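S., here's the first fold you wanted:
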Amino acid sequence: MTDPLVDRLKHLIVEALKLEGVTPAEIADDEPLIGAGLNLDSIDALELVVRLEKEFGIKISNSEESRTALASIKSLTDFVRERADPARLPS
């Protein structure tokens, strides 16, 4: 069974960053998002943080927190689940 939050985050990454040639299903849960893996850069990370803050009502307050949260889909899922208003999470 797939986690609806993982699915939502993968879709959000592809949509927000307009990743061409990448489908949400191709993003591995433990693959790095920044640098290797999806090869996102700091501008992509900033766009993603803004979108996550709007979508889930969370605050990512500094670059260290951003690096931790955006390490992989798994870390991002854990971060969002810990901080988001449960009403904003997909069920």
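And the second, which I think is the more interesting of the pair:
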Amino acid sequence: MAEHAHREITQRELRNESGAIMRGVERGESYVITRNGTPIGKLIPLRRRTFVPRAEVMATFATAPVLDADRFREDIDSAVDQDPFSREW
């Protein structure tokens, strides 16, 4: 599946054509907002899920540290008060 293209619009277009742009968002369109030719944000519909290509996900996690699940659980258990009602206030 190909990545969804975002239409590029200027800050001025967003201000002057906000009604039409919002109707576009309701239809599922996405926009990249620019200021002085520099992209500064995205306007995307909330109802739709954004497809993230597998290669992009794998590249993101490739630099993540390896997690030892047992060690992680031990660390959490040692940091959390196992009996929260044992304290005197």
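Why I say that: The radius of gyration is 23 Å. Residues 69-79 form the longest helix (11 residues).

Talk tomorrow,
H.
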